[in-house]
Amino acid sequence: MSKWEMVRLGDVCKVVNGYAFDSKLFNAESKGQPIIRIRDVVRGYTETYTTEKCKDIHIVRSDDLIIGMDGEFNISTWKSDDALLNQRVCRLDIHECSVAAGYVLYCLPKKLKEIEDATPFVTVKHLSSKTIENIIIPLPPLSVQQKIADILDRTVALIEKRKAQIAKLDLLVKSQFIEMFGDPVINPMGWEVKRLGDLVKVRSSKRVYQREQTTSGVPFLRISDLVDKIAYNLDTNDLYISDELYDIFLKDGVVPNVGDILVTSRGSLGLCYVVNEHDRFYFQDGMISWLNKRDDIIDSIYLSYLFLSSEIKRQIGIASAGSTVHYLSLTHLENFSILYPPLELQKKFAEFVKRINYHKTTFNMQKAHLDMLYKSLTQKCFSGS
User: Fold this and answer.
1) How far apart are CA 356 and CA 352, in angstroms?
2) pLDDT digits (tens, 9 = 90+) for 52-70
3) Looking at the domain assignment, is residue 186 inside a domain?
4) Cys-Cys crosslink for 264: which of 46, 193, 271, 356, Cβ 3.0 to 4.6 Å?
5) pTM of the predicted model as reported, rounded to 2 decimal places
6) Last residue of a domain, one of 117, 139, 161
């Protein structure tokens, strides 16, 4: 198959820069017209208005393509009502009938990311309209462009549907937690409150030195790897320790048991992961703390969801305040005040969560498959042939 024509973006699109509106006239009371700022590009709506007037060329209509030109260089389709185009955001006006807007929307993200990665910066990265105009893209026949956009539209719609289903399940669990236990901040049901150190043994892992890290064997988790496990159910680690070292840790009793909880104690504080029967990994000391569960005292799943409550987040905020690097020490964790309803009720909640997680796992697997499909499709569609 012959290669598609490669064209300069500026030859098929006009890049319209935003206007330098006076920020003193901005308001959040819906006075005047809505105005699109950098932060609005990805989220697709604005809460900022201005009473300042401008030319029609700086008005963005629904379905127009816009690009953020500071920080992260993102492109999106504007889906809200007509709004004004602020400086450091640009609009793409397609002036060639041989180009489909949907095709450009899916073609540019990789190009913009490459430019972003290659852009030097001191404080914030900046993108120029000239750089955008000089982007080279493959240009297949219009019918092929429309077909590509249609396929990717449907794939993205399915991904968004799975994300919405997962979010609904998360909300369902949070709602069930409040229904069964009340808001931990006010404790309306008058449950007993205990010190975390009296319910679990708070521990850390044994140090793994850099020389002991390998490229195969037992996965060795850093904070980012644990966060991916917690938030996305993904295994993203690329560091390991040897099976022999892991067996030594196992013999020494410093490997978490099923039902123990790992808590992030640096960076994003207080995120919890409950160790399951299929897990075989080790983790970074000083970055991830370990709640060694005491059987028949507290339920792990209940405790991990309690850590999502605003009450525990408040205690985390107090514990980490005043330090340059936010962290949770073992002593901080031991002294947390924990809402302690009857164990039978905790276990009932845990069973509910397990049933929900069965469906959530299915949706996560489907979303992961769709994400891979989208990546594969974009690579194939924009290879230029």
Assistant:
1) 6
2) 999 999 999 999 999 999 9
3) no
4) 271
5) 0.80
6) 139
